[in-house]
Amino acid sequence: MEREVGHILEKINRKDATVLTSQELCDIIDSGDSVGFEDVDVVTAATRAIMSGTYAVLSFPVGTGEKFTRASAVTINGVDAHVGPCPNERLGILDLMVFGTAHSHDRENYGGGHLFRDIVEGNPVDVDVVTDEGKKYSDTVSIEDMPYAQLFATRHAFKNYSAFVNFSPSPVSTIFHATTFAPDATEATLSGCGQINPVKNDPQLHGIGVGSRILLNGAEGFILGSGTRSSPEKPNLIATADMHSMVADYMGGFATSAGPECIVSWAVAVPVVDDSVFDAIRQTDSEIPLPVMDADRRMKVAMTSYADAWKDVDIEVVFNPGKCRGCDVCEPMEKCPMESIYFNGDKVVLNRHTCFNCGLCSTLCSDVFRADLGSLKFDYEGNKMDVPIVVRQSDRKRALIMAEKLRDSIKEGTFILNGMVERISP
């Protein structure tokens, strides 16, 4: 079966369209109720995760007291900013590109993702400039001083990603764990929001494509095409949006044992235009393959499903500050990849605005922080494995909230769903 996007848009304008979140639809499927093609017009899907393929393009004047010819090197809060492509000779204006995976020279576990959130929050950032002549200048700016601040995705929103286990006999430092990965397959980490991931709901990209309007970190943006290393098996997308309209709570930095990484959020409205989309939106976590990768060799060693990660688990960490025993060293505070745990006097505090619900704290102190993260169940070299998940690098809790907000915005007419300009070949 097929229908035109224009037909769906007309139903939305008449307030006659059925718009559901992907979670709502999967809940209906899990309950045993039947859903037909004509029963749903649009599904809203979302993900919040570590997305390395991220960069920002920033352009703003810098106060130096004199006009320099060109900038040769720039850092913002100690994070390298690549100068160009426009030379801006003697204009006192910087055109810069900052990578989300860049690491600060001055602050441990601070990188491009942290910087992007600081900019969106309106915090002042320190800019240090070295000119072609070797002169050095410093200034402090905020997003109000940046006429142009655009975030770009080069490789985002994979259909679904992977879980990781370290099968080697030695610990491994990796971007796929917040701390050093324990050896001998004793713990697991994972990425991907499973059944609510945007491209999982349209893997052949028949409903969304070039020009489709999305929410990137809460700001309206557009899909530009397929991302780097995209393939029919693991399609991903490129997109862009203006940082001035972004929501800080949807972004940020995440410390790993190999350095800081960048968090980005997507919310996408998928029009149900044909059977390929309809079949995809009905797939629940139990039907979605989850590759198990060896974090040391970076190769697939087994398969399971996203039900191991997201079915009958806690998507939010439960916080019980009254059970804190005042240990000499608070491991959750020391190792939190978001620095969301701190002490106000002798009282432990969890900052929900920055918390990623990764769950690491619950594996370190189950009295104060509680969350069932699930475990990976798979066969490996003739053995039945059951490896507990200790870190999640996707925040399904916040993704669900974004999908619900997008659903409501479509129904209220504040988010205008549009048809694609051109189809993307996955």
TrEMBL record:
Coiled-coil annotated residue ranges, if any: none
Pfam families with a match to the protein in the record: HcyBio (PF01837)
Residue span, 4Fe-4S ferredoxin-type domain: 315-346
InterPro entries: 4Fe4S_Fe-S-bd (IPR017896), HcyBio (IPR002708), Methan_mark_16 (IPR017677)
Name of the protein: Methanogenesis marker 16 metalloprotein
